Amino acid sequence: MQGQASFDYAVIRIVPRVERAEFINAGVIVFARTLRYLDARAHLDLERLRTLFPEADIAEIERHLLLIPKICAGGVGAGPIGELPQHERWHWLVAPRSTVIQTSEVHSGICTDPAKELEHLMKSFVLK
After folding, report:
1. Of 54, 62, 85, 101, whose CB neighbour count within 10 A is largest?
2. By C-alpha distance, which of 111, 110, 93 is closest to 102?
3. How many angstroms from the chain centroid is the CA of residue 107?
């Protein structure tokens, strides 16, 4: 069993109209540096998205959301960003941006299993 380790996380948000600052939580990214863990889960609530932004290009949004876990995993299949070291991929993923897909501010915590924490955060912020 692993001991306790610190971790950081950010909530992935879909912001249909950046100027209105309305958003839908669509996933979570978790980074535990000492455990060499970086992963993300995403889930898009299509009904909520269509309510806020009926003209949204859902296929495009879903395509970009699916890239986030690939970037976390790293490697050639994740493009140039996927070839960066893990901590640099984390910082790239949570960097502030003014696009339809954004992340919340970064939050920190302590856990023994970052994969379980990721699932807990998904249930708490996205799947509720």
Report:
1. 101
2. 93
3. 12
Please say if the pLDDT value at position 5 is more than 90: yes
106 is written with which tokens? 């970064």
Q: Give per-residue burial for 14-24: e unless 16+ CB within 10 Å, then b.
A: bbbeeeeeebb
Q: Which residues is 101 bridged to in the sheet? A: 14
pTM of the model: 0.94
The angle that helices 86-94 and 58-73 make with each other, rounded to 10 degrees, is 150
Is residue 26 within 8 A of residue 44, CB to CB? The reply is: yes
Residue 7 CB: number of other CB atoms within 10 A?
23
**Domain chopping of the chain, boundaries:** 5-125
